[in-house]
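Moderator note: this is an archived Q&A kept for reference. The question asked for a predicted structure of one protein chain; the sequence and the answer are reproduced below.
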Amino acid sequence: MSIVMRCVHRAVRFAGFALVLALIPTACKSGDVTTAPPVAPVPSFVSGLPASWFGGTSRTDVYDVGLDLGLKRGGTRSAYLRSRSGTVDGSSFISIGQSLSAVTYRNTRVRLSGYVRADSLRALGAGLWMRVDGPTGVLRFDNMIGFGRAIVGTSDWVLYSVVLDVPGNAVGITIGALLNGVGTVRVDDMRFEVVDGTVATTGRNTASAPTLDSTATTNFYARLPSRPENLDFEGVAPFASSTAAWLNSVAKPFSTDAPGSGFDDLAEIGAIVGNARVVAFGEATHGTREFFRMKHRAFEYLVERQGFTHFSIEATMPESRAMDRYVTLGEGNPEVLLSNLYFWTWNTQEVLDLVRWMRAYNMRADAPRLRFVGFDMQSPQQAIDSVRTILGRLDPVLAVRARNTLECVVAGRDTRTGQYSSASYRTGNTLAQRTACGDSLSALTSTIAASAPQWRARMRADDLDWLEQYAVLVRQWERMSRVGDADGPTQRDRSMADNVIWITQKNPSARVFAWAHNGHVSRRPNAMGERLGQQLGAAYRVFGFTFGTGLFNAVGMNSGGGFTPLGVQSVTAIDSSAVEAVFAATSQPRLIFDTRRIETSGATAALPLSGRPTRMRAIGAVYALTSPGAYFEQSWLSTDYDALIWFSTTTASVLLPFR
């Protein structure tokens, strides 16, 4: 499990920040004359990203971004980027940005302009910036700093602009502001517009080698709005009260999240699931008690009323197979087995209660009707050990070949912890070696599959199937680790989807309940849910979870960017521009909302949720209290999810000690 929720969206952003920095030369000329600022009101800094803007920095311990309620050109606030230290190196920077779909701007010339106030800017300075992306890399770029127009020194509000052409193959545009040095820069009253050919371009064309996955990049930008928001930093207009009233009229309340509470109030879940073969339940955080208990309750309902048989979870497959033996045969201690799934997220009282219920159900049925299966592949150690051990019994010659083949993957093992690390794998193998490793693993997997029929007299068919799958898991891990952070999350989601499909193929009559984060189960591009939706069509249904305010478990992050111990975190406010604000306005404590009603109801009040991305909370296993605005993603509600389950307030999951 990724410590932080990662996706192509984030990879594209950070790739952009790296480019912003890479195109800044080591020395630049100033384009402005230093003048004394006029007497101005006292600054009033409020740290945190402005609504609709994302941020990135090379030094979280040095830089800060937020709103200044004291110094502004117009309205009530401006955005600021500042250094908290007088000493930084030439590579240190902080930036804010917004990304847009470029489709409506193709073959036009666009201008980003804004008023900038500089206070004691030193080193490379500050600037507005804009980047135009094609499917595989950057097409046009300007950040002012790298083009002889850096803003340095001290000055009152001055209008600046960057102008770029948008080629016909462009897929995305990112705009923003940048500080690369020391001081404070404020930005206000920005504009983004199409201009005619009389306006000269700035920056330059960028003929870079392909660095991005074309499908992932195109899919990412296709979901984004075509117009930027909050360019004056005054905020985003909240949803109208009529939208909340409509939601209140169509969503269905339910009485409790407590398992064992009956099913009379869960009929809406059954109606949404229908005849689906795989139903996925997400979560907006990895540490919320109500989410976990409600998923337990929903699984009870789907087992008892709709004949579901397989519980699957975002946990490593071989380790989960040991839990399956407890659920089906009563073997082992479930508390120890939860610890062996590696992740603190599942090592909770809520998950323990669920697996004990599954065991009790199988005992009542006097048959192993319910099964426990993982579908993740982030930890290859048991898969590697299993391939070595089983082949050692079946085919000593092939076992030697397998051991030699697997050595390249073993280079990714941390000798101190025994855990496998993608970063260690890339460090321990050159690109050529990683490519050869992947090819060898693919060949080994094919050989095992081809040899399986001759071993069937010596092994149960189920065990042979798992031998093949263990080899597949190692190959999946290598593929994810080889590509690094830019495409690794996409590879992981593809692998998890393929593993869920493997579960359905291995068990043709099974109906499968899948448990993972919202970001995995949703149908957003490059997610596990998109791939499952493509392969299963209407046989795939997905429920997302979100909440208003409350507590949850997560690893903390301090203002310096360092991790703090796992513990209870809190959300105390609701973003008025996010879908959570609509749910909160219903005043309902718990709701099940069939998102398909957004497009089918015909209600005018539903239009603000239709045909456009909507901000929705997305917290993974890490949370920084200082940057709550960073934990949202853009969701197309009626296509990403079939339903949303809402809790107005939440509490933290009950963590268990590792055993």
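Archived answer notes: The two ends are 19 Å apart (CA to CA).
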